[in-house]
Write a structure and sequence with these properties.
This protein is an alpha+beta fold. Helices cover about 50% and strands about 20% of the residues. The strands form 2 sheets. Strands 1-2-9-4-7-10 form a 6-stranded antiparallel beta sheet. Strands 3-8-5-6 form a 4-stranded antiparallel beta sheet, with no helix packed on it.
């Protein structure tokens, strides 16, 4: 097991069920798990809810919840899986909107997933490096699941700047989202992403991510009276004081002042 204190990776791997058998007896686990189905079909029962699962979907297992799952007889599934735990793991699961009656999500990027997982599984790397590789894989799944059925152009006409923006828009709520996730998803280096994005946009990836988060915070305040803590949770900021400082710098008023201005604007629009 590897952990940074808040997000632990127990293990990850690949199953094709050529020799393995599915689990048909209910059991309970003490961690979270995600299975990224590459091909085939199967069945999941989680907390009494039954799901028919096929390629292009990810299914999630939850701790302290009776579960069992198995491949179909005629078209057994192939999948990669990651077992993880910790406070950030729970937060990540919540960001997917996953619970026992909604434990399956569609994802985009099957071919990318296979490449990333194969590289991780075939590499003889130090434990610390393996941990960060697994975390990157977990966040790749987050980006792919959030992308749903969107089709990303990776051939002729592919725009790397727009791809970076796309990944950021899908992941800005995650407070521990970092540039290495973007690099892994795009199969390029950290330095390439940084240099390319700065050349094309005139700003760093970190700055763009911050701008996206601030814009979303302002949009939320235009809808209702969010507290600072709620805004940070919804936009990926993990430091409330820092958030309030850059919000004032961006909009020329404090969060409280902006909230009151938006409240007044909403009231006026109703009269």
């Amino acid at each position: 097991m590897l952990s940074d204190g808040d997000l632990g990776i127990m293990d990850f791997g690949y199953n094709d069920f050529k020799t393995l058998e599915g689990i048909k007896t209910p059991r309970v686990i003490d961690h979270f798990s995600v299975h990224f189905v590459l091909s085939g079909k199967g069945t999941l029962n989680l907390g009494g809810e039954t799901y028919d699962i096929k390629a292009g979907e990810a299914f999630f297992l939850l701790p302290e919840t009776p579960l069992f799952y198995y491949p179909s007889d005629d078209e057994p599934w192939r999948y990669y899986w990651i077992n993880f735990y910790g406070a950030k793991a729970e937060k990540l699961i919540k960001s997917f909107g996953v619970h026992k009656t909604a434990a399956v999500r569609k994802f985009a990027g099957v071919e990318e997933a296979e490449i990333l997982f194969d590289e991780a599984l075939k590499s003889n790397m130090p434990a610390e490096q393996a941990y960060y590789k697994a975390v990157s894989l977990l966040y790749y799944i987050a980006a792919a699941v959030a992308g749903g059925e969107q089709n990303y152009e990776v051939g002729e006409g592919f725009d790397p700047e727009e791809r970076v923006k796309q990944i950021i828009y899908l992941n800005y709520k995650n407070s521990d989202f970092f540039i290495d996730v973007i690099a892994d998803v795009m199969h390029v280096s950290h330095s390439y992403v940084s240099k390319m994005f700065k050349q094309k946009t005139g700003m760093t990836v970190v700055k763009f991510l911050s701008e996206v988060r601030l814009k979303k915070a302002a949009e939320l305040l235009s809808e209702r009276d969010y507290r600072v803590k709620e805004l940070c949770a919804e936009t990926g900021f993990n430091d409330e004081l820092y958030f309030m400082k850059i919000f004032k710098k961006k909009y020329g008023m404090t969060v409280k002042e902006y909230r009151e201005a938006m409240r007044k604007k909403r009231a006026e629009s109703k009269t």
